[in-house]
Design brief:
492 residues; alpha/beta; Rossmann fold; 3 domains
Length: 492
Amino acid sequence: MSAVRPVADPLAFKDNARIVVADPVLRRSFRGAMDFLTDKRAAQFPDVAGFNRLRALGESIRQYALANLPQLLGQLEERLAERGVHVHWAENAEDANRLFLEIAQRHDAKLMVKGKSMVSEEIELNHRMAEHGIDCVETDMGEYILQLDHDRPSHIIMPAIHKTKEDVARIFAEHIPGAGYTEDVNELIAIGRRALRDKFATAKIGVSGVNFLVAETGSIVLVENEGNGRLSTTVPDVHIAITGIEKVIAKLEHVAPLFTLLTRSATGQAVTTYLNVISGPRREGEKDGPREQHLILLDNGRTQAYREERFRATLQCIRCGACMNHCPVYARVGGLSYGTTYPGPIGAIISPHLMNLESTRDLPTASSLCGACGEVCPVGIPIPDLLMRLREAARHDEPVAQQRKALKGQGGARRMLEVAAWKGWRLVYANSRIYRLVTWLATRCRRLLPGRQAGWTGTRVALRPAPRSLRERLAQRRPTPIPMDDTSKPAA
């Protein structure tokens, strides 16, 4: 990978993209990985009609859950409390990190082991805990590699997809004592597992994300392949799960179709190695499991998406990453270019709610609108439509009467020069005399236009009007008379 890394700032998307596009190793790695994942997914859904039926079921499950979200969250809290789980509500990242810190300090914990969790990335848990002398160690192999290298995830399912085996060999040799340098993939995995094994036994707190929350039974569902999630949630005395409020579903029977859609869409697997259903801390007579369990339900902008029906479908996402794997833009610029926790098409529609639209204004435009993301989404999120709505919202302020519902940062991409240009365009096209005058001037002064035209000429030739307008060319044409002779006359 290039020594110059993309920065964690969505406002730097264009500069970040240039860095990645200029790196042939990164581009080759991403292209190969995306092709591999799309082929595996296609093999799992050979029957298009069957996939559409399953997707319709998954979409209805998620839409039902969102339509009844307040009631289901209340039911979930009651069921979890009955099972001895402490439920906490966090309005933002600051609240969530404060809850983590309070629990850690109460147990005098200096070490946390963490299974894969994008929400913990969203609140920057590792960095916030480090500020208070608490070491939060990633146990997902991809996340562990990135943590050692002080890097960020570039994919929500395979966070270290931008790393080559040579990168991993160098990272382990530099940061794991006695590891040595090897490019053998199996040996690298073994080195990482040995380094992490002791962490599970010594940590007082285990942290995990959540794939689904079942309101009916008060269950936490985790989907994984490595087993680190199971270790993080059972070996330490305290387990803290954190997730967004949208992950709740109504019934346990709804897990099966969503699990089928998730695993096949994400990694092209019929099933994953582990499906964990956690229903409370260790009970009397049980030999493993945490003695204390907490669940932190995070808002952090999700209610903003929820309260407006035009954006609510964003929250249907089950974090499979299929939209990224099929996105031609993501496949070329990679996840780090977006500068956000959630990259790709799903990041472009959810990040404006989590971070505000002004600071993420370039992300909805990072799409060719080819529609591939919407076609493969396993729960039917209309991603292209949402991208267009966000583009419009970024450039237009809500009327004063509707500002109560406006997105944070709405109108952030609005520029007075652009506004003036569109007003001028409307004036010209609304008056035929002005239009004819402008086209006449444009054709006669065509050579005076600059050769460099803002961002247009970065990848295209300069715009230049034709020597004469179409109206003028048609006016210059003379109708050709059709000769008539006696034989062409109709018979009497």
